[in-house]
Amino acid sequence: MRGSGSGAESGPGTLHGSRPGAESGPEPGHGSGTGSRSRSGSGSGATGAAGVFAAGRPVSGALLVVGDVVTDIVARHRGPLASGTDTASVIRTLPGGAGANVACWAAHWGCTDVRLLGRVGADAAAWHERELTACGVRPRLVVDPQAATGTVICLVDTGAAAERTFLTDSGASLRLGPGDWSDVLLDGVGRVHLSGYLLFSESGRALVRTASASARARGVPVSLDPASAGFLVELGVDRFLSLVEDVDVLLPSRDEACLLTGVPDAVGAAAALSRLVPLVVSKQGADGALVARDGTVLARVPAAPAAPSDTTGAGDAFTGAFLAALLTGADPEAAVSEGCRAGAQAVERVGGRPPTPDDETAPTRGRVDIR
Q1: DSSP 152-174
Q2: Taking phi first (over 0 means left), then psi (-120 to 50 degrees means alpha), and beta for anything else, what does residue 114 get?
Q3: Homologous superfamily of 22-355
């Protein structure tokens, strides 16, 4: 559940101003119990300057993202961690989750109707709803009566590469299941994006099958980001590939593409994957991205220049902007260029979400620093 968000106006434990949610059925699979509630918000339509990409171009339906919503604790340190003692760090608590981040970046990049289906605990439901709405996302958050909101600790080495390591407690996020799905969610939707983290729980895998089948029945294309090479190893390559048979667009990282194909070089791996999935967009970090179809790499798109501060959520930013561009009618190569631009913006911010209007006037909003 990589990726963290922009600064928050209050911490995740602050539940003031919440609105009552409508009752929904219990989730099968992981036994979430009865009494789950859903919280539905209306996006504010807040988009940044990047949203001009969509200006004057027709938008072909809404984007529905199905995925994880988590609370990120981002600890930025310089150099190796000091084992057995203290390491000086700057620590922030931020809203995050790969699925949530993708939704926020898509809205920031000009997609005027972005919807998110996710599952959270009662401990942080109102906070996450406010943060998503502030980014222009329409959240439908199922409140889990038993599990707390997922939490990810992001350890960011502030050296030149700003590389990061994640410690993940999935909490409520991976308890999202078919019982939380309704075909009504597809009304007016032009694209569905599934967070790959859904594949790492039994109920999530069942939801991927359900959502993919529903989208296919309506002719709505589906994209998926594999999410984590580490979790892919645990799941197994063959199992993963069987779960994405109905996916139209796959967005792996370089490492994920190589793992899924057994091909050691990035170009060969992207080409091999594109024999299994109609369109493959392989994210290459500082080297940009590859576009592959029918066993051939069709384009190599360079990265946009950036001075990395925190690479958390850069891939989510790429995916959100890429999907927003596709919905405005861009071809895949042009959409990938937009993804690279968004990724470059993301690595220059702490956390994985785009700026909101409040960020410009309150740059330390929601910040908790421990030195």
Answers
A1: EEEEEE-STT--EEEEEE-GGGG
A2: beta
A3: Ribokinase (3.40.1190.20)
Please choose, from the candidates 322, 370, 62, 300, the residue with its C-alpha nearest in 3D space to the C-alpha of residue 188: 62
Per-residue pLDDT at 53: 41
pLDDT score of 313: 85
**pLDDT score recorded for residue 164:** 77
What residue ranges do the domains of the chain occupy? Answer: 22-355
Would you call 26 exposed, middle or buried from its count of C-beta atoms within 10 A (0-12, 13-18, 19+)? middle
- Give the residue ranges of the chain where pLDDT is below 70: 1-59, 160-162, 359-371
**Neighbouring-strand partners of residue 143:** 37, 120
pLDDT at 33: 38
Token look-up 């793992």 returns 259
Q: Identify whether the C-beta of residue 122 lies closer than 8 Å to the C-beta of residue 17.
A: no
Using a cut of 0.85, tell me whether the model's pTM lies above it. no
Per-residue model confidence (pLDDT) at position 43: 53
Using DSSP bridges, classify how beta strands 70-77 and 150-157 pair: parallel, antiparallel or unpaired: parallel
**Coil, helix or strand for 303?**
coil
One-character DSSP codes across 193-205? EEEGGGGGSHHHH
Find how far residue 307's CA is from the centre of its chain.
Answer: 22
- What is the rounded end-to-end Cα distance, in angstroms, of the chain? 26
Query: At a CB cut-off of 8 Å and minimum separation 6, what does 190 contact?
Result: 59, 60, 61, 62, 63, 220, 327
